[in-house]
Amino acid sequence: MPELHLKSQPQSSPAVFPPPGSGTGKPLSVTDLRKTYGGVTAVDTVSMEIAGGEFVTFLGSSGSGKTTTLMMIAGFCEPDSGSIVVGGRDVTRLAPQKRGLGFVFQQYLLFPHMTVWENVAFPLQLRGVPKAELRRRVGETLEIAGLSAMARRRPRELSGGQQQRVALCRALVYRPPVILMDEPLGALDKKLRDQLQTEIKRIQQELGLTVIYVTHDQEEALVLSDRIAVMRDGRIDQFDTPRELFERPRTPFVADFLGAANFLPGTVQQRTPEQTLVRLDTGGLLTARPQAGAEGAKVRAAVQPGRLRLCTPGDGFCTGTVETVTYVGTLVRVTVRPAGGADTGVVRLELPAGEAPVLGEQVSLTAHPDDVSVFAVEGGG
Ligand SMILES: Nc1ncnc2c1ncn2[C@@H]1O[C@H](COP(=O)(O)OP(=O)(O)OP(=O)(O)O)[C@@H](O)[C@H]1O
Ligand SMILES: [Mg+2]
């Protein structure tokens, strides 16, 4: 399970460039975007508003409509309906180059015959930026990305990660109000990905950039994003901060996709303004934060493995037998087979390694009510 980064945003250092979109407050707004291919709905009424300096990620499994949404914003794909407004200007019917957005894709698409410097200078030359200004801006941008020493090399003389940083510089250099990135680290190995994630986040914060990023990697989305739009079947299931998605998932899909939640079947026994009590099919009583769902309704209670704890017998919502114990660095993954009641499968926990139980041990499990989400079972109760 990805470690959740809940740190507050560090103070950004003085921006080298003025934060793009500052003053407009809302660099990007998308309303009811729709795109179908033949009978297939790729994107279905997607709406969102993105603030200046925000790092927003489209997260979803393959085919969920992430790239199609990004391509419509970029202008490479025409929506069937809906509108796109950038910095207060409706760009829905404008050509990509007239929208003034920056792009970074999975393939670096650098010009092989040009040096790093020339690659990065290219967008400024296209825009007729005067020479002195061009030199200053290319120099600054390469400096920020740690590429100054490689300015004279050609792309084939660089590593994959360095090439991707050049591609990033090329998108940054003309200060677009919004930068769009589609799986820019997809082709790189894990270690390099981690490094460049940190790099991208640092540059984004330093320059106050507004970024829309596409990935199917939950951990990457959690590390990078101010807000994440979780996409499924062409729709946004939930658009929220990583913390909200994790702690207040609005659908079972979000609970599962972001944290591989346990789903415990049961029935709502009591609902008060303070709490929802769920009688689990395994027999125990689980207390959740107050949520919708009528008394007697069939539900699934979702709890992340990292939010379950062992407790003294009698205090928990379930007792059972430890079936597996797997050490993962400073954490231990444990599965427990609940005793009694219906067999609803094992419960998965993640504990600090120091709290590991032993195989075959009888344990009791508890969770804080705030960490328990309750979802109605469709067609039930
Ligand atoms: N040009 C096209 N013609 C027909 N169908 C398309 C086209 N482009 C995308 N689709 C379909 O639209 C849906 C969404 O595709 P999209 O590329 O947006 O998904 P994605 O979320 O980016 O997936 P991935 O993670 O695999 O890149 C898919 O079902 C896909 O098959
Ligand atoms: Mg895609």
UniProtKB/TrEMBL annotation:
**Highest taxon, organism lineage:** Bacteria
Q: Which parts of the sequence belong to the ABC transporter domain?
A: 28-258
Q: Name one GO cellular component term.
A: ATP-binding cassette (ABC) transporter complex
Task: State the residue spans of region: Disordered.
Answer: 1-28
Does this UniProt record's set of keywords contain ATP-binding? Answer: yes
Among SMART domains, the record links this protein to: AAA
The EC category is: translocase
Enzyme Commission number(s) from the entry:
7.6.2.9
Would I find Nucleotide-binding among this entry's keywords?
yes
Q: Which PROSITE patterns match?
A: ABC_TRANSPORTER_1, ABC_TRANSPORTER_2
GO MF entry, a single one: ATP binding
Gene3D superfamilies found in the cross-reference section: 2.40.50.100, P-loop containing nucleotide triphosphate hydrolases
Q: What is this protein called?
A: ABC-type quaternary amine transporter
- Record the organism: Streptomyces resistomycificus
